[in-house]
Amino acid sequence: MGFQDVVSAAANLAPYHLLSYSTLIGMSIFQSFTVVKTAHRVLPRPAFTTLQARLFPIYFQLQTLYFFLTAATFPPYGPVSLIKDGTSAALFSVAGTGVLLNFFVYGPRTRQAMIDRSRKAGAPATTTDEDVEEASEEAVEALNKSFHKSHAMSLHINLITMGALVVYGWRLALRLKVE
Description:
Largest sheet: none
Helix content: over 70%
Number of domains: 1
Shape: elongated
Structural class: mainly alpha
């Protein structure tokens, strides 16, 4: 194997694409269906709230990073090739919209609503050592409603994103040449 062969192999986007896609879908499924379910089952509510308030921003950051890496390494020529593949472009558009909505809108809203709800409801604060604030039942109910609405949107967007990624992965697997 000569130098040109090494350069040609390193320039091939397919291995990078497969690794970034595999990391993206694996991380998304593991976080959504294993970590959250296990933590919810075994941790007391204040600890669960604290863990989620710290984990989900990291999850949405990594999901966004790996989504863009996956799009940038779409074989054979990156985004140019992705745009030319209409079905994959549509799936990436759905997944990308979900990733960005959770990263910029619903993830932060849900996290803040969870923190506010914990403070007002008398549970330990999740991000600071500020004193827990007293609140009326109506205020706590409003915070609960806000949390549930943001959380439901984030959860459904995450499921739609993962659905688009799974369909894309199926199509990707069908394109593999196995000898």
